[in-house]
Amino acid sequence: MSGRARPLVAVGAWALCVASLAGLFVVAFVGQAGVDWEGVGWAVAWCGFPIGGAVIVARRPQNHVGLAMVGAGVALAIGDTTSAFIPRDYLTATHHSAAAQVALNVNNWVYAPAYLLIILVPLLFPQGRLTRRWRPVVWLLAGDLLLLLIAIATRPKLHLPRNGRSVANPFHAAIGDRLQGAVPALTFALVIAGVTAVVWSAWRLWRSSGIERLQRKWVALTISSASGVFIAAAVADPATTTGSALSLLALAIGISGTGAAITTAVLRHHLYDIDRLVSRTVSYAVLTALLVGVYVGLVTLATQALNVTTSFGVAAATLAAAGMFNPLRLRIQRTVDRRFNRSRYDAARVLDAFAMHMRSSVALETVREELAATVQTTVQPAHVSLWIA
Q1: CB 78 within 8 Å of CB 290
Q2: Range among 130-144, 342-356, 360-374 rated most confident
Q3: Mean pLDDT for the chain?
Q4: By CB count within 10 A, which of 119, 257, 282, 388 is most buried?
Q5: Tens-digit pLDDT profile for residues 181-196
Q6: Counts of helices then strands in the chain (DSSP H, E)
Q7: With pLDDT > 90 as the criterion, what percentage of the chain qualifies?
Q8: Is the pLDDT reported for residue 362 higher than 70?
Q9: How far apart, in whole angstroms, are the C-alpha atoms of residue 113 and residue 75?
């Protein structure tokens, strides 16, 4: 892609996301049907992919991860926009405009290419190119997708996006009837490909090293954190509207955050902060769980077993948890650093050993050698020079 075309791709992806969101609001308000907040939430969530992909295209044009992210975001934005343009009374209305019929047909098949492009993202990440063993598989999946699109676009019935009810397809063709029997197999092949891509990406994380491992860690941490928040929100109160809203919000943040993490990893922005980020996340998660457990346990012990008044028991438990915070944090941090942030832990040990050794060393040559060795071990520069005046 030429340098002149890169900004156009970036601006186009951004404009499409804005247009998708604006279309959802405008159609809802003009039709006086109320805003479909679930649709808006999904549109906001997937905006992270085309925007992040556009940044990658502009900054790393040779990396095809950006193109896959932009393509997936564009397809999903089209799906959300067409969903908003389908009238709510489509099932009962006697006449439908050509725009509504086209929107419904496109809405039924546009998510399939988006899914295939999302599958390509972990296969291309982080170098931006497919390995030799994956190229024939991707070509087979492209053929599978083409047959699936033809089958969906020309089948006898289409599904409304809001309630799943079936209506007649004005674009029905005979080839759609012949391909209907193959739709389950075609769909199953795409599902298996998606699962395989995720498993392969996890295996690559396990086997990778150096910069590639740091890049994959960024994405793995984001997905793991978002999954944890989503599960917590879903388990908290899944039956209420608030619980569903929290789950949708967590899912939206996780999806957009994944797009941002992929962009950060590909551009290698603050790449070496991942070990510290993982260490801090695990440390404070464990610390929070321990303090909450101590607090609940002390309150229960004070009010139930010792028959202490509730206010006094709560105050005592609060003071105890506050007093335990810093000692627990330091101990947990040291323990977690040994596992997740070895560079910081090893560097601290090397510096402590250097300080202890320097207390008994007076020879200038020994000090120079020890200092150079310490800098080489902790900072790992390309070159070390030391002048002592």
Answers
A1: no
A2: 130-144
A3: 75
A4: 119
A5: 888 999 999 999 989 9
A6: 15, 2
A7: 8
A8: no
A9: 7
Residues forming a β-bridge with 158: 167
d(CA 10, CA 12): 5
What's the predicted TM-score (pTM) here? 0.68
- pLDDT of 145 > 90? The answer is yes
Cis peptide before 238 (omega within 30 of 0): no
The pLDDT score that the predictor gives to residue 48 is 78
Is residue 157 helix, strand or coil? strand
Cα–Cα distance for residue pair 238/247, rounded to 1 Å: 8
Q: Which two tokens stand for residue 280?
A: 């801090």
Measured distance CA(376)–CA(373) in Å, rounded? 5
Which neighbouring-strand residues pair with 159?
A: 166
What size, in residues, is the chain? 389
| Beta strand segments in the chain, E | 157-159, 166-168
CA-CA-CA-CA dihedral for 57, 257, 117, 148, to nearest 10: -150
- Distance (Å) of CA 289 to CA 62, 77, 160, 330: 45, 39, 44, 15
* Residues 32, 127: Cα–Cα separation, whole Å: 48
Please state, in angstroms and rounded to a whole number, the distance separating the CA atoms of residues 295 and 313.
10
CB 72 within 8 A of CB 117: yes
**Mind listing the pLDDT tens digit for each residue in 72-124?**
888 887 887 777 777 766 666 667 778 788 888 888 898 899 889 989 988 88
- As given in the structure block, the two tokens for residue 108 are 């039924």
Structure tokens at 337: 């650093």
Question: How far apart, in whole angstroms, are the C-alpha atoms of residue 99 and residue 306?
Answer: 72
